[in-house]
C-alpha cells in the first residue's frame, strides 16, 4: 500500500528551528518545513506552545505568510495552538512555562486568529479551567477543532467539553503529573470518554508498549491519531540544548527531556519513525496503521484526503512491517 505520506497534527519545530521562538524568521521557518516534508510527512500543523502575547503577535503572521505560498498549499494545513489555555499545575503544565498560561478567552482566541490570518485549525485547552466550555463552543463555531490536554480533568470535565464540541485528547498519557489518583485521573477519564479521539506520541519514549496497546484496544483504530510532537531539536545530534523554558538533554537513544523538571520536551523524531515503532509492536494491521497515521488526523483536522499531495510518498513493506519513502525520479 502506498500513501502520499503521514499527516502530523503536532510539529513544534525541526532541525534547530523553534516555531515558538522569540526570533522566528520566515526563511528559517520555510527551511524547517521543507525538511519535515522530505521525511515521509505529507502534511502537518505547525504548532506553537504557550508563549507571551508578543510572541503570538509576531510569529503567527510569519507562519501564516509562509503557509500562503503555493509551495505549501495543502501541505501546511493550519496552525495548532498548544496553549496558552492550559493548566499551570506542575506536571499538567509539562514543559510549558506556567507563568505564560492564561484563562480561556474567546476574545483572545479571536485576536490570535486575526494575527494568524484565520489559519488556526486546532487548539489544545485544559478541560477543567473556568471558561473552557465557552471557549470550545466559540472555537468550534469558527471551524477550529478543539483537543483537550495538559490538564487535571475528570470524567465530568471531559464529558462537558465533548458536549461543547471538543473531539480529541492531546497526547493522551502525557502532559499530566507523574503521580495521580489511581482511579480518578485524566488518563482513565480520557480512555473512558468515547466521544474523544486520542492522539498519542508513538516515539518509543513517551508511552511504553503496554500503554500504547491499552489506548489502541480501548479507543479502537478509528479513534486514535499518531503525532510526532517533534521538538525544535528533532533532527539534531545528541547533546545539551536550551530554550526559553527548558534546559534539555537529547540522549543517544533519542529521549529528549528536561532533567530538572523531570519531563519529556517533545520528541526527537518524525512521523515515519513513530509509525515504524508502532508497526513493530504488531498492534495494528496495515490498513489500521494507515488510518492512525493518515486518514484519522485528516478527519480530525477537517481536511479531505484528496487534497494531500507529496513528492515523496510512503509505502508499507508487510514482510518487514516497515514504512519506507518512495523516491520518484524528477521529470
CATH topology name, in short, is TIM Barrel
Described by the principal axes of the CA atoms, the overall outline is: globular
Low-confidence stretches: none
Q: Helix tally? A: 9
Content-based structural category: alpha/beta
Q: Give the SSE string.
A: EEEEHEHEHEHEHEHEHEEEEEHHEE
From the 3D coordinates, which CATH architecture would you assign?
Alpha-Beta Barrel
Count of DSSP strands: 17
Describe the structure.
With 331 residues, this protein is α/β, with parallel strands linked by helices. It has a single domain, classed as Metal-dependent hydrolases (TIM Barrel, Alpha-Beta Barrel). The protein is 30% helix and 20% strand. The strands form 4 sheets. An 8-stranded parallel sheet has the order 2-5-6-7-8-9-10-11. Strands 12-13-14-15 form a 4-stranded antiparallel sheet, with no helix packed on it. The protein is globular. The mean pLDDT is 95.
Ordered list of secondary-structure elements with their pairings:
Blueprint: E1 2-3, E2 6-11, E3 13-14, E4 17-18, H1 26-37, E5 41-49, H2 53-67, E6 79-82, H3 106-115, E7 120-125, H4 132-141, E8 145-148, H5 155-163, E9 168-169, H6 186-192, E10 197-201, H7 209-219, E11 224-227, E12 239-242, E13 247-250, E14 256-258, E15 263-264, H8 271-280, H9 286-301, E16 314-317, E17 322-325
Parallel strand pairs: 2-5, 5-6, 6-7, 7-8, 8-9, 9-10, 10-11
Antiparallel strand pairs: 1-16, 3-4, 12-13, 13-14, 14-15, 16-17
